[in-house]
Structures are given as C-alpha cells and as structure tokens.
Amino acid sequence: MKVEVVAVGTELLLGQIVDTNSAWLGEQLALSGLDCTQQQTVGDNLGRITDALHLALERADAVLVCGGLGPTQDDITREAIASVMGTSLVTDDDVADRILEMFASRGRRMPPNNLRQALVPKGATAIADPQPGTAPGLVCPVGDKVIYAVPGVPFELQRIFEQAILPDLRARAGEPSVIRSRTLRTWGESESGLAERLAERIQELDDGPEGATLAFLASGIEGLKVRVTVKAGDAAAAVELLDAHEAGLRDLLGDLVFGVDGTSMEKAVADLLMERGLTLAVAESLTGGLVAFRLVSVAGASHWFRGGVVAYASDVKFDLLGVAEGPVVSESAAEAMASGVRKRLGADVGLSVTGVAGPDLQDGEKPGTVFMAVARTDGTEVVKVMLPGDRERVRQFACISLLDFLRRSLRGT
Ligand code: ATP
Ligand code: MG
C-alpha cells in the first residue's frame, strides 16, 4: 500500500512556515508499515493542486492532502479534489448544521464564508470531528483509490489522522505490518570503507524477500551511523528481525561499533569505566574543553570523571602537566600530558590530546595532525592521526577519535 503526502500552502514554498505536517505524517505512515515513497509541496493554486493530486494518484494507492481546507478564498483544496473526481461541490447539511450551532452556542455572528467549510465533493464523506466547527477532514474515493483531505493546523491534522484516516488506511491495506529501524554507531572507518565492508550484505538485502534496507549517515561527532530498517507483521517480529540483522552487521563491523541507537561515544566510554571501576582525567589542547564537555553530558559522570585541564598555552603544558620543553604537537608531549594529568588529578586513567586545528602550521606540523595518549598504571599508549577538514571539523573529529582511542584501550583489558 503506497501513500503519498501532498502539502498545500504557498507559505510552505516561501519558507515562511516549516512543513512539519509532512514529516509527522511520514513518520506515522512508516510506523504503521505503509510505504510513503514520495511527497509533494504545492502552493495555493487550483491548477497546480489539481496537477499534484493527479500525479500522486498515478503512483500511489492513497493520497493524503493537508492544508487549504479553511473558510477563506485561498483555501481551495476541496475545489481541486472535486475537479480530480470530475464532480462538483455540494453542501453537507450535517457539517453546515454543526458550524451554525457552534457559532450560535458562542453567541457569535457567523461570517458567511464559514459555510464554505460545509462544501464537500459529491461522493465524498466528511469525517465527523469530535471538535466541531473547524474544517472537517474528507474521505474522497477516486476509482479504487482514495484522497484524504485534512486541515493544515497540526493538532487538528494529527487528531483526524489518528482517529479516522489511519484506521481506514489500515483496513484498505489488509495485512497489518510495521516498519522499525535500528542504528549501529561506528567510528574508525570512512563511509566508503563501511560501504565496502557491507557491500555483499547490502546486495543480499536488495535481492532478499524481506524488504530490509541499509543506510549510511555521517553524523560528525556522533560518528558514522549504519541504519537497518525492516518490515514485519508486528512489533515483536520486527524486533526479532532487527536483532538478527544487528548480529550479522556486528560480525562484519567488529569493534567499529561503539553503540546502538541513542548510545553516544561518551556513554560507551562511561559504561566501560564504570564496569572496570576506573576514574578518568583529561588534558586537552586543541579541543579546548570539548572532551570534558562531552563526558559530563553523561548522567552520573561524577562517579568516574575526576576533571580536566585545558592546557592550551605551551607553558601551561610545561608548568602544570610536566611536559618537557620542546615541540608540544608531538608524541612525547601527548604522553607527558596524559601521565601528568593522571597524577595531578589523582585518576586511574589519564587521557590527552594535542594537535594542530589550523589554519596555520604549528611546530612544523600540518593542520589536522593530532597526537592522543592514554596513560594508565601499567604504561602509556600514544597514537598519531591525520584528521580532515577545517578548524571546527578537526576539533570535533579529534574529540570523538580521542574517546574512541580510550574505548579501544579499555576494551583491550
Ligand atoms: P484553516 O481552517 O486554519 O484555514 P487549513 O486547512 O486551511 O486550515 P492552512 O490554511 O493551509 O490550513 O493552514 C493553517 C495553519 O496550519 C497555517 O497557518 C500553519 O500554521 C499550519 N500549517 C499548515 N500547513 C502546515 C504544514 N504543512 N506544516 C506545519 N504547519 C502547517
Ligand atoms: Mg486556511
């Protein structure tokens, strides 16, 4: 069952309001296992709304048009639907009575325009609204297909969709089904590298009968996401499928995966520190406190986070952390910063990062050159990485790379 959403409103095209209705409807349709493969946005113009409805009816089984149902002259969705149905508008007496009653009960004079809301394409049904007086939704059969019309005001749209349209769509679709996604969050491999590792699996999914899909999403400091989406008869079956896909993907991706769905890198690190009963201190140069900022975003960070030193100036690295005088973008400086902050702040683990955010060279090193170290009771590990991008991206990538370095170091024990 394919459903297409058509959002009506010139103000949407002009960017004066953001089309949250289409986003909301897209999400609801997906959760109900209904395919929404295309959406359209169209201005308040009779010819163009009619064209959009014709096009949508060609490629979908049901069309959801939102907006343009109100009482004013620029609300012309019902005229467009009547034109597509090849019929005229007639007054729905029940709707007209409800509008008249509503005005009478509030002791207000009714502007004649309001009776426009009682006009319904011949052959269509007005959806009785539990809150009368506003534009009713419409169910408009077109051959074996259907157009649903809903008002543009988000809460009215949502109520009518949930109470009347979704049940009707479900009944038309026959078998109930749900769509669910799960996101594996990775670090340590490029997007194309991930695609290469998963190429065979993607092909299997494309050829398979299940209709499962894989998508990649580069999300900066949140890592590179691999999202798998499945369709199933009910929620429990969907979870079972997702579990199987997750296991298969983990086999292929190994410890590139640091978390699932809402699990951030800092949360993954926090869990490992808690598990091992270790405390952490950080010494940051080019990230200027970003690493500490991320770490304390995890609830309960006080259990394992001792604190951090933003050692930006070279003499702070020398005087406070015991780094030997010399180039501060170097392996030895990173090592000394990590063990220095570990001792200074009395932590089990010291973590450090020093490098060149750019745009200028420092200590003869190019922008994007970053040294990171982890110091523990039994020694220090240090690594050099070259990060891409401008100053901001280098700082962001340095932050997640550093946390990933710690995660791998902790997992190794
Ligand atoms: P009304 O009876 O209020 O005139 P309507 O069906 O004619 O309802 P519109 O006039 O198109 O709907 O929109 C009414 C209001 O609803 C807009 O001013 C806007 O605030 C909101 N709205 C309309 N379309 C959308 C949309 N696609 N996304 C978010 N909000 C919307
Ligand atoms: Mg309107």
What does this structure look like?
- The chain has 413 residues and is an alpha/beta fold.
- The protein has helices at 10-13, 20-31, 46-59, 77-85, 93-105, 154-173, 191-197, 199-207, 235-253, 265-276, 290-295, 314-321, 331-344, 391-411, and strands spanning 3-8, 39-42, 62-66, 89-91, 119-121, 125-127, 137-142, 145-150, 178-186, 213-218, 224-232, 257-260, 280-284, 305-310, 349-355, 369-376, 379-386.
- A 6-stranded mixed beta sheet has the order 2-1-3-8-7-6, sandwiched between helices.
- Helix 2 (20-31) packs parallel to helix 6 and helix 3 crosses helix 4 (77-85).
- Magnesium ion is lined by residues 70, 72, 75.
Topology:
Elements: E1 3-8, H1 10-13, H2 20-31, E2 39-42, H3 46-59, E3 62-66, H4 77-85, E4 89-91, H5 93-105, E5 119-121, E6 125-127, E7 137-142, E8 145-150, H6 154-173, E9 178-186, H7 191-197, H8 199-207, E10 213-218, E11 224-232, H9 235-253, E12 257-260, H10 265-276, E13 280-284, H11 290-295, E14 305-310, H12 314-321, H13 331-344, E15 349-355, E16 369-376, E17 379-386, H14 391-411
Parallel strand pairs: 1-2, 1-3, 3-8, 13-14, 13-15
Antiparallel strand pairs: 4-5, 6-7, 7-8, 9-11, 9-12, 10-11, 15-16, 16-17
Helix pairs in contact: 2-6, 3-4, 10-14
This protein binds adenosine-5'-triphosphate (ATP) and magnesium ion.
Adenosine-5'-triphosphate (ATP) binds next to helix 2.
